[in-house]
Amino acid sequence: MGIKGLTKLLADNAPKSMKEQKFESYFGRKIAIDASMSIYQFLIVVGRTGMETLTNEAGEVTSHLQGMFNRTIRLLEAGIKPVYVFDGQPPDLKKQELAKRFSKREDATKDLSTAIEAGDKESIEKFSKRTVKVTKQHNEDCKRLLRLMGVPIIEAPCEAEAECAALCKSDKVYAVASEDMDSLTFGAPRFLRHLMDPSSKKIPVMEFEIAKVLEELEFTMDQFIDLCILCGCDYCDSIKGIGGQTALKLIRQYGCIENMLENINRERYQIPEDWPYQEARRLFKEPMVSVDIPELKWTSPDEEGLGNFLVKENGFNQDRVTKAIEKIKAAKNKSSQGRLESFFKPVVSTSTPLKRKEKGCKLGTPQLTLKSSMFTIQVSSRSSFHIGSSKLPRPGCQFGYHNALSLTSCFST
Amino acid sequence: MLELRLVQGSLLKKVLEAIRELVNDANFDCSATGFSLQAMDSSHVALVALLLRSEGFEHYRCDRNLSMGMNLNNMAKMLRCAGNDDIITLKADDGSDTVTFMFESPNQDKIADFEMKLMDIDSEHLGIPDAEYQAIVKMPAAEFARICKDLSSIGDTVVISVTKEGVKFSTAGDIGTANIVCRQNKTVDKPEEATIIEMQEPVSLTFALRYMNSFTKATPLSETVTISLSSELPVVVEYKIAEMGYIRFYLAPKIEEDEEDMKS
Lengths: 413, 264
Fold this sequence. Notes:
The complex is a heterodimer.
Chain A: H1 6-13, E1 18-21, E2 30-34, H2 35-45, H3 63-77, E3 81-86, H4 92-118, H5 121-130, H6 136-149, E4 153-155, H7 160-169, E5 175-177, H8 182-185, E6 190-193, E7 205-209, H9 210-217, H10 221-231, H11 244-254, H12 257-263, H13 277-285, H14 303-313, H15 318-334, E8 345-347, E9 352-353, H16 365-387, H17 395-412
Parallel strand pairs in A: 2-3, 2-5, 3-4, 5-6
Antiparallel strand pairs in A: 1-7, 6-7
Helix pairs in contact in A: 2-3, 3-6, 3-15, 4-5, 10-11, 10-13, 11-12, 14-15, 16-17
Chain B: E1 2-6, H1 10-19, E2 25-30, E3 34-40, E4 46-53, E5 59-62, E6 66-71, H2 72-79, E7 87-92, E8 98-104, E9 111-117, E10 125-127, E11 135-140, H3 141-152, E12 157-162, E13 167-172, E14 177-182, E15 196-199, E16 203-208, H4 209-215, E17 224-229, E18 235-241, E19 245-251
């Protein structure tokens, strides 16, 4: 799924491109969310114990509805305006990848039945999670739910990721939220991870900016796409022996895949015979996306409709749904709050931080300088003792001295 | 090297109490002009701008423009250890990762050093353009605090409208509505009790009371508050700090959303 090892690669080589943000800071922002990815997560996680998941009276799974309902309300309550983007037809190249996933699911189903026979609870849970598949019905259920909640949805002609990126590029939304790193490869200017994680996990949102990624790697967008293809994407196989770091080195050295293929040691790296990297590149660069997107609108929830759908058809608790609807209505009021950035623009601060930024923290030298700076503090706190010369013992000075001592012992370890 | 000596130490204590509810971590900037801070709340709706001019300090030494990242709650904890009459000196060395607060009692018989760890804070600085405001209201700070407190027991938002008649604060909630009108009143014994309204044109804006209430934590700093309103801009709520500078709060207004399909 996505681009293999890209997160780590960026953390190591372009740390400034990613920053942790508070969930609340996306207040008032429109955010495009890859719906299929979220539904998949909900089916795996929400309300699962072993093989059992949430179901309605007819025995149909409702985990995706529960997840979608609760998480969307959480977004709305934070003043975020979500727009869900659903997958359309996958591109031909992805079919190979999809076939692989299909066979993996087949294997998992077989493993699951053996596990059930053996009564191994841990394996039952593990394999039953792997058999999860997002069906058309799941998608349709969620679309219906979202429409009733007054949240806009978009059906992408092809890949949802690409559509999200296009929405973000054309400034229709502030950022794209997904767990798939290929949003960046599709060129989404701002990409968020962990936005849809449950609040109980307390994982901060990780924001990536493509402009900063390119700046730090000193790459063009085309080179970044080539890097992602080499790392391994959904559209074509990667080359055996080339992982993230090697891919980065190769693109830095050769500039593009064509040039690399001409110069690379073919005995060391076995390039697949029929390697459709050009096609993959085209899919990333010019993906099929909607040309004309109607204006996105967030409307009031359809209370009666939600009651019918969730309580009557899917066995949700009446009280909980009523309370949730109240939350949606209250949140609507909140989302009309403006943000300061729409009035004032950021400027560059002229001051330099007193505390020097520590890079890497692995080398010995910064620690040394820290030590010496601790020493000067010690001296200065003593000098303050001399300035205010008087006969009385100084509790303040003793405190300062003791403090400096304990800090030094801290740093010497 | 940085050394700032503030005789009226309680001022710094009050400043911290005024902003720590709104902002958790912030960079303090020091330059030849003074000691300043600009920070937004986590949802980027409100901004606080503080300036304490260098002239207001008894001793002010700042060799180059510096910024120091501090956790405001921790800083407030340390400042709370200073007596109200204490002289506060703020010290930091180049390249150090700590700042020292020194508290001296007025008769010099007690000196306390508190050293606090600094932090790395990535914060965005916003450029705030000088603007002409459509209406400027100056009123007693305690009065404004009272109004905000009272209204927030009834509703979540306040509509501030300025007309020729005066300034009106109104709210609506589940239990009912409230309207408070303050008229221009210059004929008072003390100038700080006056309510003065300068209006170019009538203006009406809606704000979240939660933020307004948090701004009024600055009331102990100043007798009067100045509220500047323009339909195109965030409101500015300013508390002047005598002979030193100011603390200004900016709050983005609520936006009327045109919704065609309002289902009843």
